[in-house]
Design a protein that fits this description.
6 strands, three-stranded antiparallel β-sheet, single chain
Length: 470
């Protein structure tokens, strides 16, 4: 990934009293005895950047296959806006190729400014100009289609909108009204005129926010880690979003875009633009409810952390200056240059006293911050104990009539035993009265009835025989 170029002029002065620390990424490469030459950029025989074009076109040649294919280059640089009605599939293919290439190039820092989140269309046409094909003829149609589909959003509208840009409603939003007005004025519509302005690349903003949200839980360890100023937040996210933070020293707009998106659209943090204070969600406590607003206590903690970071950043250069002056004094003594040695020693003494004062203040502020963390932990502990006491109180209230319940239970058990005793007495009395021989009596009764029936039949047959004899 190429490092983005830093603009010569600052777009916006910092409104905060404490200057932002200089940001830089330390190299993790191992020292070697020789350095391998960096790979030369790819060359396309069909597309060559001009002297006026920036590194954007070279980045597209290096990383986009479409810009190394002769037929695709001709199609992309041609006036394909006429295909909107005659060949809509081809038109959409070219538009999608341009939009995807520009978004990926911006994310890699090839646009030079905007931190990968903003594209300035006034510079885009010149940055894409080539010697063979000139400027892309349908760039206006590409930008217009991206605006129509809300893939590019005007910078001022994005920062000033009070409503979620993803929220859909049957009531026209200010941006929809603006698009209708631009269409009526002829700025937008079925034309190939390039809309000039600064636009937020919605896809890149959402990707940066998701990358940050995935990494944040591993960076929050103490209560004050959730609270930041713009400078300390920039240092926090630098390893995660290097393209964005590289432009913060000259232009804070990309950082404000990201914070606005996280606070207004995703509701994953609280941001106070007036003080530049940021309050993150506590780890593992995210819910559907909006985050807590920034309080005066949070603003004070953010200022303390900003001052601590500012003083801490002064220690390495002061240490290097003391070492340099010490080496200078030793070299002057070795050369018998007494005056130069005395001057170097005086400067070293002054730098050493300044360094000691900075270290003392950093230690003092660090101790204050540690005490704030301890106090915040105590507050959280007391809150948990208060909630636990309320839970126990509720349970105890539900079990307050335990004695009455036990007494009622004993009474019911006594009744059960009493009823059981009565049943046992009845059963014994029934058995004494012959209830136990009931089955045997029934069997003998049936046998007696059978004998009676057989006796009747025998007597009847004898009577019939006597009648026959008579």
């Amino acid at each position: 990934m190429k490092e983005p170029k830093t603009p010569k002029n600052s777009h916006r002065a910092s409104p905060y009293p404490i200057p932002l620390p200089q940001l830089g990424l330390t190299s993790s490469r191992r020292a070697t005895t020789h350095h391998e030459p960096s790979p030369s950029p790819l060359r396309s025989p069909f597309l060559t950047p001009t002297k006026m074009s920036s590194s954007l076109l070279q980045h597209l040649i290096d990383h986009e296959e479409s810009f190394r294919n002769r037929n695709r280059i001709r199609s992309l640089y041609s006036d394909f806006s006429k295909q909107r009605l005659t060949n809509p599939d081809g038109f959409q293919a070219n538009v999608a190729a341009w939009k995807g290439a520009i978004a990926r190039a911006a994310r890699a820092g090839a646009l030079g400014s905007g931190g990968g989140l903003v594209v300035r269309t006034a510079e885009l046409k010149q940055e894409l100009e080539s010697r063979e094909h000139g400027a892309p003829l349908s760039l206006g149609s590409v930008v217009e289609d991206a605006i129509e589909n809300e893939q590019l959003i005007p910078l001022k509208y994005f920062l000033n909108s009070q409503t979620n840009i993803y929220r859909k409603s049957w009531i026209p939003t200010p941006w929809q009204a603006m698009k209708w007005s631009l269409t009526q004025l002829g700025v937008m519509g079925p034309s190939n005129k390039l809309v000039v302005g600064d636009f937020v690349i919605n896809e890149n903003v959402d990707a940066a926010a998701q990358d940050l949200l995935k990494a944040l839980p591993n960076l929050l360890h103490t209560p004050t880690d959730r609270i930041h100023s713009l400078s300390t937040f920039t240092s926090l996210i630098e390893p995660i979003l290097p393209t964005l933070t590289a432009s913060v020293s000259t232009d804070q707009t990309p950082l404000l875009i990201l914070l606005t998106h996280l606070s207004r659209d995703l509701q994953q943090l609280s941001f106070d633009p007036s003080s530049g204070t940021i309050k993150l969600f506590a780890p593992h406590t995210r819910t559907s409810t909006p985050p807590e607003p920034v309080t005066p206590t949070d603003i004070s903690i953010a200022r303390l952390k900003s001052l601590l970071a500012h003083l801490d950043a002064q220690i390495p250069p002061l240490t290097a200056r003391v070492e340099h002056l010490d080496a200078t004094a030793r070299a002057a003594v070795a050369k018998n240059q007494k005056t130069a040695a005395m001057a170097a020693l005086r400067s070293k003494k002054l730098a050493s006293s300044t360094l000691d004062a900075r270290i003392s203040r950093v230690e003092q502020l660090g101790s204050v911050l540690a005490n704030i963390d301890a106090a915040a932990d105590n507050v959280a502990m007391v809150a948990v104990m208060r909630e636990s006491a309320a839970v126990l109180k509720g349970f105890n209230a539900e079990a307050a009539d335990a004695e009455d319940v036990a007494e009622a239970l004993r009474e019911e058990m006594d009744r059960v035993e009493e009823v059981g005793g009565i049943i046992n007495e009845v059963d014994e009395d029934w058995r004494r009265r012959g209830g136990g021989r009931r089955r045997k009596t029934k069997r003998s009764e049936r046998k007696r009835k059978r004998k009676t029936r057989s006796g009747k039949k025998r007597r009847q047959s004898e009577r019939r025989r006597w009648r026959k004899r008579l």
